[in-house]
Amino acid sequence: MKLVIHGKNIEITDAIREYVHQKIEKSASHYQNLTTEIDVHLSVARNPRITTKQTAEVTLFANGSVIRAEESSENLYASIDLVSDKLARQLRKYKEKRQVKGSSRTKVELSAAEEQPLLGDLTRDRTPELPEDVVRCKYFAMPPMTIQAALEQLDLVDHDFYVFQNIETGQLNVIYERNHGGYGVIQPRNSQGESQNGRAAAADYQAV
Description:
Blueprint: E1 2-8, H1 14-27, E2 35-44, E3 54-62, E4 65-73, H2 76-102, H3 147-154, E5 161-165, E6 172-177, E7 183-186, E8 202-205
Parallel strand pairs: 1-2
Antiparallel strand pairs: 2-3, 3-4, 5-6, 6-7, 7-8
Helix pairs in contact: 1-2
């Protein structure tokens, strides 16, 4: 199992490196047969107004899936403890989903609202907080998947959105958590305002 540690505004000392290996490898020890690589990113915020300055972010690659956890606190070692605990929970959730998928399961379906255009601004009720510069780029494999599979991935990456390649259309889609519950799917549209599969270019998605 490959474990890579990166640092931003911090020197990765031998003590930090050893602690990361100890905590993260313990969290992933029962899933080594599923794990191909673990990426750990440690950072310290320079803004004095930010109280939780020490951040630990872990991205784990497991058989085509990406599992992500992030925690911040005033102490780097505490952040590593917190993120390792969260990673363990995410991995248990991932394993449970794999077990359910192998047996009978309730399918996630598109709600009736999917045929209607998404009303309102996607950023409604959110305060824009755009960074001045692009501070980090990430590159991931993007195998084609269904919307149902993308929803499962969204639950694992500790983000409120997930970009994926739709297996039905071959296009890039975004599935995201809506502020008032449920999920939305953003799809490219043609000049007629329809996606390649003939549905509205943006639709609500609800797990049932």
